[in-house]
Amino acid sequence: MEHLKRAAAERAVKDYVENGMVVGLGTGSTASFAVRKIGELVSGGDLKDVRGIPTSAHTATLAEEVGIPLVTLSGVRPHVTIDGADEVGPGLTLIKGRGGALLREKIVAHASDAFIVVVDESKLVPSLGAGALPVEIEPFGWEVTLEALASLECEPELRTDPADARQPYVTDGGHYTADCRFASILDPAALEKEIKRIPGALECGLFTGLAQAVVVSRKDKVETIEAG
């Protein structure tokens, strides 16, 4: 499976990253292959004047290790962002955030001229909701927020720290994450709006209307599915 992830990521870098670009750098195992490829091309002189905006502290560390100069959204906007996804549904609707960086991922994606998603074929689903939908939430009153999420006909669970299950998982921004299991998600755009009406729900992992293209690696080929 790792070779499929690498193939999709490297194809996206080849097709969408050019000299002089500011590139949003995604978080997760597939996106990390794109970061490494960009670093390789920068270090080898094949890509010039490329700068990156990382979507997580982990990605920032990786980018620095492979030699990608970093900038922030305070002064520039990404020409393109390359990131992975947990699920890709009809119309290039996405679930993201199981890696714990959904709020920053969505901020960078929304600020980009183009948002390109890289996945292997296992991430393609007939409808979203095969797994949990992450929602980044404010720690204050998180119990109330989970109750409100449950009213949307899901089973929300507070994510715990992998190193200590007695403690909540804390994002780079200092927030908690609720993993919400729905029987199915038939209208992602409508559900996204409903979740964001909840005061403690800062952002959800539904990405609708953002991806311009999804680069999919299959066992026998790599293909690009464009929006529309």
Short description:
It is built from 6 helices and 15 strands.
Could you walk me through the main structural features you see in this protein, from its secondary elements to its overall organization?
With 228 residues, the chain is an alpha/beta fold. The protein has 2 domains: 2-121 and 208-219, Rossmann fold, CATH 3.40.50.1360; 133-203, 2-Layer Sandwich (Alpha-Beta Plaits), CATH 3.30.70. It is 30% helix and 28% strand. The strands form 4 sheets. Strands 2-1-3-6-14-15 form a 6-stranded mixed β-sheet, with helices on both faces. It has a 4-stranded antiparallel β-sheet with strand order 8-11-7-12. A 3-stranded antiparallel β-sheet has the order 4-5-13, covered by helices on one side. It is globular. The two termini are 28 Å apart.
What would CATH call the architecture of the largest domain?
3-Layer(aba) Sandwich
Query: Which range does the strand content fall in?
Result: 25-35%
Instruction: Compute the CA-based radius of gyration.
Output: 17 Å
- Top-tier CATH class of the largest domain: Alpha Beta
Question: Which segments are poorly predicted (pLDDT under 50) over 5 or more consecutive residues?
Answer: none
H and E order: HEHEHEEEHEEHEEEEHEEEE
| CATH fold node name of the largest domain | Rossmann fold
- Quaternary structure state of the chains depicted: single chain
Mean pLDDT: 97
Q: Figure out the total of helices.
A: 6
Shape: globular
* Largest beta-sheet details: 6 strands, mixed
Number of E strands: 15
Q: Please tell me the total number of domains.
A: 2
**Which structural class do the helices and strands define?**
alpha/beta
Amino-to-carboxy terminus distance: 28 Å
